[in-house]
Amino acid sequence: MFRSNLLFVAIIVTGFTLLPFSVLAEIPADNTRNIKSLDNDENIEVIEVYAQKRKQKINDVAVAVSVIDGEAIDRQQLKDTTQLSALVPNLKITNNAGEGTPPAFNIRGVGMIDYNTSTISPIAVYSDGIVSGSANNLSVNLFDLEHVEVLRGPQGTLFGRNTTGGAILLRSKQPEQEFGGYINASVAEYDTLSLESAVNVPLSDNTAMRFAISHQDYDFSTNNQMLGQPNGGLKQTNLRLIVKSEFDNLMITSKLHSESWSGRPKPIASLGINQVDSDGLCTPSQAGSSLCEDNFGNQVGGNDFWAVNADTADREHDTDSWGASVKFEWQFNNDILLTSISGYRSLERFHSWDSDGPGNLVEGFMGTNNTIFSQELSVAVDLGNSHWVSGVFYVNEDIQQNNGFDLFRDFRPVPGFESVAAQYFYDNQLKNNSFALYSQVDHKLNDVFTLTAGIRYTDETTKYHANADKDTVAFGLEVDKWNEKGQVEDDEFSGKLSLNQKLSDYSSVYYSYSRGYKSGGYNAGYSTSKAQAIASEYAPEKLDAYEVGAYLQFMQQDMRIHLAAFYYDYHEQQVFVNQTQGIAVDHVLKNAGDSTIYGFESELVFVPSHDWELRLNVGYLPEANMGEFNQNGIVVEDNRLPFASEWNLSGAIVRDMSVMGRDLTAQLNFDYQSDFYFDQEENSYTEQTSFVVINGHVSYELDSAFTVTVWGKNLTNTEYSELRFNSIAALGAVTELKAAARQLGIEASYKF
Q1: What is the per-residue pLDDT for 153?
Q2: Model pTM greater than 0.90?
Q3: Topology annotation, domain 2-268+310-426+442-751
Q4: Domain ranges of the chain
Q5: Is 686 helix (H, G, I), strand (E, B) or coil?
Q6: What are 154-163's pLDDT values in tens digits?
Q7: Over the stretch 9-21, which tens digit does the pLDDT of each residue have?
Q8: Which residues contact 251 (CB under 8 A, 6 or more apart)?
Q9: Considering Cα of 473, then 475, then 477, then 482, what sign does the dihedral take?
């Protein structure tokens, strides 16, 4: 294994060492005038990013960053952050416990599949500079955005808190000094109605505001066969108001946002694995078909993939959240910029769930009251050949849980079996405090090389109070079945060191080392014993990342390509474990041993002519295993990490043409994922086999203001899952959440 790792690194390093020479070989050594003229070509698309908290050309940063502009998000009908993975290599996101619950984000194999409302993901979402906090806030609706940046790899300095996997930066469209706006309205299958609108209003010579709204009303594509039971669906209304004032040396940006979601969760499919009229087991491909049933004789009710059989009439979802932020940018002089950004967010959510299909066997609810306050102060100094930024960061997050777990309720009235039934009520409280100091300098060594060095010190504390009551037939309600308090404290240094080698004004190669750090804490999940609740503390994890990458612009071919190869040395890896104990499944978060991850990714954009554009993203993870762990009966094997496909490819073909004197744009895009597992067990029943999803749209401009778009998602009706959970010991079944079926829709857009 060690030799193969070294061989992989040697091949990648050799390739990137030769890369600059191969690029420069295309340009004659004495033709420097032509180089300059090419670099100044007005037709070259200059991509600018905020990956280092300031506006830079993408080839000036030593970070693997994918940029998705607002138009691409609108064209592909991306509703929220959980749908970004179809556009970024080595990024996988899923609603692994149903839409509206904490989603699972995964970048380069680093992620967290824990759906508990106390979870802190190793991937952070920053909305206009404000950190998301716990995984409760990771699902953000995408509307009226300037662009999205996905930073792959640990962000140890500038975005250091809990970003061992990476960070996703959302940048809203900003107010401008010109009145205007748009209205987008669409209808689609599954009773889908959506409305998005924004208006930009100048208020004075130096102040403008922008108000945006997004409303979605839709059903899920699952087909519930159980009589009188709904298919599930949500209504989501999101509002955003931004006011920006620009004075001589001061800019003030204020933001208010509000979210209101309500509806019923997506029904699960309980896929029985026992052969009907036989003692044998169904194969994984047969599970859930008419050939199979669970331990209680229940079946899905058909062979249609999207058919389910679930009692969800009493299940519901409700989310109410709001937030505010204010950003001050004071240009002290030409060389010094002082920035203050303050943010507050409040979220209340109730989500009830079902894991057993038609019975009342494994059910529960998640209730959370989540508040987070963050404050960041920074100073940026331009020193000619150097740019230095230093800052202080503070975040305080309170999480109050009101959760419930109801086991085998149907057995309560059955003599002799009533003892297996139990209901747990959890009243958990967590307080997370994080304080950090950071500093990073970019120093231009000469016209070719720029050195970046950064360091961050983080001090974090998690205080927890875990309290549970238990209700059984024999003993009734047992108050304070456990009542545990504790505190987890960590402090750690992280940071980065990189070298950027400039090949031209639009091409570069970088070499980078980063140290990522994610704090320890307390996993306030669905414990079923006092011992499990006591053992739910976990320690911090660390990740040393070595990376080489390139941003290359081939102007003669009108093509650009972004490349990155990485090698991760993972220490004390935090792993969420589904561990079967008897008929119950325990959900624990533990620090596994050290592990290794390495891989490669590329993003290609090729414009062969003015009316064609081709895009191809490739992600490759040949090695993404977790460390081994064996403690108190909890075993983690040296298996592949969950949600870590070896290969993932995505791309698009875009065609622009003129029809009857008006612009028509057609786009077809695809997303391919190779096999992966939904948990650490590598159980064949919880494996997602490889699949490809194809989406497309056709837009036609009726005039300069009015556009009509016909769009389709999952055009080939590909069958795949958002989640497969091992419930075999308890139910003789696999709990599954179906991904979305084919959907066709039409949208009308008006700009003013």
Answers
A1: 95
A2: yes
A3: Maltoporin; Chain A (2.40.170)
A4: 2-268+310-426+442-751
A5: helix
A6: 999 999 778 8
A7: 443 443 443 344 3
A8: 244, 245, 327, 328, 329
A9: negative
